[in-house]
């Protein structure tokens, strides 16, 4: 293909098609708010032909689920990060110290 | 594990009764065991000095968690989130020039699926890596990510506490996600 033709095609594509940088921005924003109709169409079209961005979206969705689990576990009292003995001792010492200081 | 009469606090029992819960809670919000330890410690001390503010309307644990949450927010407020982000992100995974400008740089593009089938969530190693990656977020990004995504604070409250606009928040969350998924992929696969 002649260089000039290829360049023109790229220019047209760049003007109408989303870049991955823009697409991932939309995918991120979609998590919090509704995209405009135009944005949704542009994103859909980009995702049709971009496996990386499709995968990015799947990875994000997965991350959201896992982070949600982490948080809800913590709230419910499921312990994913227990105190080490060292940490427990350190907190204990500090707390006992403060308690005895108040008694004086 | 019953608490005594409503208005009575038992500081000498706090660590045994609530230590694990509070510590785990803190780690889930600040992504660092060292920092979590400091915050739990500070919360206990603060609670000790403010026992009169406990009215018995909530449980002892709820009251302690509220103090811890405040400590966490105050910690993040110190991160100076308001400073402007640099315009050129040197670590962008997208090509910055040439015909393919804006496209994924293939060496940084998503290569693996984080599949549900393996039930990564049940995998301690994965959780450890997730937390590790969260701990690598720059302080400003970590603050917003923790408050908005993990704590699920209202946007309005995050804006008030951190002196940012909603638009700042979305931008920072996006940058956080790009870093997180790249870090996880690097370390897990």
Could you write a compact summary of the structure shown?
The complex is a heterodimer of chains A (104) and B (189). Chain A contains 5 helices and no strands.
Describe the structure using short key phrases.
heterodimer; A: 104 residues; mainly alpha; 5 helices; 0% strand; B: 189 residues; 7 helices; elongated
Between the first and last Cα atoms of chain B, what is the distance in angstroms? 43 Å
Helical amount among residues of chain A, as a percent range? over 70%
Assign a percent range to the helix content of chain B: 55-70%
Q: Say how many strands of chain A there are.
A: 0
Number of helical segments of chain A? Answer: 5
Radius of gyration of chain B: 20 Å
Average pLDDT, all residues of chain B: 88
Which series of helices and strands of chain A comes N to C? HHHHH
Strand content of chain A: under 5%
Largest interface, chains and sizes: A-B, 48 and 56 residues
Strand content of chain B: under 5%
Please tell me what the overall shape of chain B is: elongated
Number of beta strands of chain B? 0
Write the H/E string of chain B, N to C.
HHHHHHH
From the alpha carbons, calculate the radius of gyration of chain A and give it in angstroms. 26 Å
